[in-house]
Amino acid sequence: MLKIEPNIADFDGFYEALVGLHRNLTPEQSQLVNSKLILLLANHIGDRVVLDQAIAKAVQGVKPAGHENTISAVV
Amino acid sequence: MTTTTSDSDYQSLVFDYKRCADQDASRPVRHPVVIVGAGPVGLSVAIDLAQQGEQVVLLDDDDRLSNGSRAICFAKRTLEIFDRLGCGRPMVDKGVVWNLGKVFFRSEPVYSFNLLPEAGHQRPAFINLQQYYVEGYLLDRARQLPNLEIRWKNKIVGLSQDGKSVDLEVETPDGNYRLSCDWLVAADGARSAIRGFLGQTSSGQTFRDRFLIADVKMAADFPAERWFWFDPPFHPNQSVLLHQQPDGVWRIDFQLGWDADPVAERRPDKVIPRVQALLGREAKFDLEWVSIYTFSCLRMEKFRHGRVLFAGDSAHGVSPFGARGANSGVQDADNLSWKLRLVLQGLSPEELLDTYDSERVQAADENILNSTRSTDFITPKNEASHSFRNATLELAKDCEFARRLVNSGRLSLPSTYSDSPLNTPDADSFSGPEIPGAPALDAPLRRAGEDTWLLSHIGNVFAGIYFNDGRELHPELTKALRSLSDDRLRVSVSILEPKGSPALEATGLKFFEDVEGLAAKRYDAQPGTFYLFRPDQHVCARWRHFDVASIRAALARATFQA
Known about the structure:
The complex is a heterodimer of chains A (75) and B (562).
Chain A (H helix, E strand, L loop, with lengths): L10 H10 L6 H19 L2 H12 L10 E5 L1
Chain B lengths: L28 E8 L3 H12 L4 E4 L13 E3 H9 L3 H7 L1 E2 L2 E6 L2 E7 L11 E3 L2 H12 L5 E4 L3 E7 L4 E7 L2 E12 L6 H5 L4 E6 L3 E7 L8 E5 L8 E7 L3 E7 L12 H12 L6 E8 L2 E5 L3 E2 L2 E3 L5 E2 L7 H20 L7 H27 L4 H14 L3 H6 L38 E4 L2 E4 L8 E6 L7 H10 L6 E7 L12 E4 L4 H5 L7 E4 L5 E5 L4 H11 L4
Parallel strand pairs in B: 1-2, 1-11, 2-8, 5-14, 11-20, 24-25, 25-26
Antiparallel strand pairs in B: 3-7, 4-7, 5-6, 9-10, 10-11, 12-18, 13-16, 13-17, 14-15, 15-16, 18-21, 19-20, 22-23, 24-27, 27-28
Helix pairs in contact in B: 1-4, 1-7, 2-3, 7-8
């Protein structure tokens, strides 16, 4: 079960570290670092149920405004 | 005229169109089965049915084998099917055996995998072999079968079916003729004309990317390994695959991106610099075959339409990552042939063919799922997936978990038909992978002092394996085992004895020594265990104790006689 109640000892310190991670990075570098961070944390958590709940929570309320980059095909 | 079949000129063979008696018949001649398309799939179905005794007519609209290398990776299971069809050996002898795959990111190696962690199998995990060799060896085998007639330059231009037969109009160099058949196998490729005649479609998605295949001939000292680069310095921002084929031919596959011009990119003045960027300016090579492709993952909703059965690319298409196109097509042929034979012989009702549809649709979905996942990794669809891809590759250098995420193609494995209605569910307790519906695993055996392999002794008909304890069989058991081979649905029974047992013989039964104990291990067998295999070598049922009535019930279920 995904925890959404407070679970980090030092919230302000953690937030500072998270934001500080991106200081002096280009947007592309930031995206790469964020991707690594997500992959590392996901593997640490391991539990697919928790990961799927986090994935669902993260996208909640986001209305897709992009487009799928594939073409449907019929032959 | 038909030229000689030497080792290396399959690509240049031209086959004579010959007028056949059907063209002069006053009314359409009726055949039990007509197969359309002399590619790897059509040839496999034709050989399989013919060697099981059926009269087969194979039509092809061309007079040549595959033009270009095309499919080059043939998986273990496919080689085992080719063994059953009587032509696996020349393919393995000619093919390049490889086990090691290496993945590079930019200029650094990040990950390597070994496909064959386990000994005790006759066939390797994969061989690389040009499609024209595979078709050539299949054709050599087909020509040994007098009841298999191939008609080159015979193109289907019209088709109708009424539930009792399929009627065809065939175009030839000297005019059209009609014929009819009980069953039609459409192995006529991705652009299947037969699919169109039936008003059917194959649907799915096309990926926005283009790839260049450059097959080059050169004397190179690269090892026989699969090398895959993401974003290498010699081809920035795209991927490249290098893979060895026989005769000093190397497959180089360059990702080009969606905006590449498919006409210009095929020209030697564009291709050669790309190859030189990889091999070096001084490298000497000849271009063997160049092709630009995009790809789609699609399938027909159903593979059986009345008396027409679709197999291979006509029924489904996948991206090339993972070698799942030709391999899955040959596995379609393997699944279809024995069922069609039983229906043709009146041993099963035609509903048995609906299980060809259900089992192979499931297999197609597995292949599409795996190849779509590989494609999403290799050609990321958006910035976020591109970033995850690069993050995975960077982490893979020192994080073991990330190596498991690297996906440059999950290579073809056969499907286990675990939900098939043909399976008899286990009543006894077993562990391991050989559940009902699973393809049989090989193991080394010995018979009369000769080394042999388990898979060489099952297939074509239903087969039983009884695991004995090394002691003489009880006369009642011998009689019961023997009775299985006398049934209308003949079951070929083998007795496996533990390592070191004295050689026993009994009329009508084949005894083998499980020389390394691997058969018992792989099948989780104990003395008394009995496995029943379908003619395509998939497990049908298994028991801890031999019981003729249970075996007959399982056979009835697997042949739709229940």
